[in-house]
Amino acid sequence: MATLTLNNVKKSFGKTDVIHGVSIDVEDGEFIVIVGPSGCGKSTLLRMVAGLETITDGEVQIGGRRVNEEEPMARDIAMVFQNYALYPHMSVFDNMAYGLKIAKVDKAEIADRVNQAAKLLQLEPYLTRKPRELSGGQRQRVAMGRAIVRKPAVFLFDEPLSNLDAKLRVQMRLEIRALQRELGVTALYVTHDQVEAMTMADRMIVMNGGVADQIGKPLEVYANPATEFVAGFIGSPPMNFLTCGLIGETGDDRIGIRPEHMRLADAGEGRLNAQAAFCEVLGAETLVHLRCVDGTQVTVRQDAAKAIPDEGTNVGLSWAGANEMRFDSNGQRI
Amino acid sequence: MAEHTGMVEKRGAGLWLTHLGLIIGVAFIFFPIWLAFVASTVSQPEIVRPPMPLLPGDQFFENYSKALTAGINAPVALMLGNSLFMALGIAIGKIAISLLSAFAIVYFKFPGKKLFFWLIFLTLMLPVEVRIVPTYEVIANFGMLNSYQGLILPLIASATATFLFRQFFMTVPDELAEAARVDGAGPMRFFFDILLPMSRTNIAALFVILFIYGWNQYLWPLLITTDPSMNTIVMGIKQMFPSGDDIADWPVIMATSILAMVPPVIVVVGMQKLFIRGLVESEK
Predict the structure, then answer these.
(1) Hey, where are the domains in chain B?
(2) Do A88 and B193 touch (CB under 8 A)?
(3) Predicted ipTM?
(4) Containing domain of residue A149, as a range?
(5) Which residue of A has its CA nearest to B173?
(6) CATH number for position A128
(7) Span B69-280: which CATH code?
(8) Tens digits of residue pLDDT in A29-83
(9) Which of A37, A221, A312, B283 has CA 20 to 30 A from B7's CA?
(10) B176:A87 CB<8 A
């Protein structure tokens, strides 16, 4: 258990800058999710913390100690890989015990720790099996177990759930979070899934093109996005963006309104006119997709009890001014 | 029958015809071996007098014990031992060297990596027969004529095996090496604990191929062993043929031929399962 500090960490491959300087202070026991689209540098950032990539510039500290030049083993971290990276010829027990064996931990102690982890992860019946005899979820647990037995200062997760089916993903999401709370280990978790980020993070880092656009608590980021990118990336369905011209204002600013903050009104009323394109009925709520005069797509999320407009009908859209977010031409929040 | 056989629907005359074809093929290949076996169990006069016998005679133990203990130039038991030593040395040496060189080429960055890879690859085009004169010169200068080193070393460097392991290592996910690094395993530890056990079916397949390659070497041993006690069995058989007016002891020669076939057969049959798995599946 330790704090983790990134101090203006940069990475370039040759002349290409991949990460342009990320800084964050992670508190002991905090769960940090790094989220962003593919190619934004989130995995590279994690691998730099792990010691699998060299750090071009800046400093990584674990527990207040600079670790830039240390091997992964010496950094006191454990990592869970996207494809689990279990050793195929070793039993579940040996997979979990391998790191400890190399560290020359006492045999009885190894057995003790592995059994404890197996109990925690409900892997006890499978300890003698090979990875190929396990299901995806069980393999995921073994990968977790391998990380736990090391008793590391920091857990690193590299998209650990993306190979699982949707249902299992939701379940494992909860399990990982519960486990991390129970063990109280600082964790860094990379994902491209904003739902995972929202539900798991104590704080999240939203990455865009090698820059940390915003670092903050999930609800804070959702309610108060710092850039147009963050506003559009976090939240499903994504935020609606309108040009100023569309609502009769001048300037280059763009205006963002969350789907749940928009209301349907009669044609000619409200602040904007649009044509209903199609509706998605989800049960508890309905998503109404509309098209504005200039072709902009807008989504309104409303309660299922409310009336659904027929396709092709003209409706008005209204929203409270307080829910409006303005972004300048560079995508920065005003 | 047709209801539950699924894909294989027609199993009438076709089945018999294919089997007949196979049986004829096997008989065709097996007949000379059978003749050799028959010849190794009869006496010298019976072979020389036409027609040749087609059923085994009663001289089996006499001929084989004569071949094993006395032979013609050297006892066959000794030649078998030489061959075994050479074939094992070539197979094990090749596998060890090519595993290590493939490991270096796939997992390490070093200056001239590409150059070295192509140098290794280039040797594919230079089998022993092509470079036999310079190789002989080198071995002779090292004083390795009539020695096991001389028999084994020039045949060890192998591009094929290196290439095979390189291809296999490249299919091993990078995360596995990274996971081992996070677990604290150094490069050699990763090699021995993870890469080696994962390649065991490939190693087995290669062992079979290389053992037979080593066992069947003819030209090279013929060239560098002049002392009969260093003869290998494959070249030894040729040495047994009479020169000039000598009378060939055909039953003993045939017994030697049969004996020369036994070890490769044992290796192939014994490692068949691993061998086929190594060629067919890759376990990841």
Answers:
(1) 2-63, 69-280
(2) no
(3) 0.83
(4) 4-233
(5) A85
(6) 3.40.50.300
(7) 1.10.3720.10
(8) 999 999 999 889 999 999 999 999 999 999 999 998 999 999 898 898 999 998 8
(9) B283
(10) yes
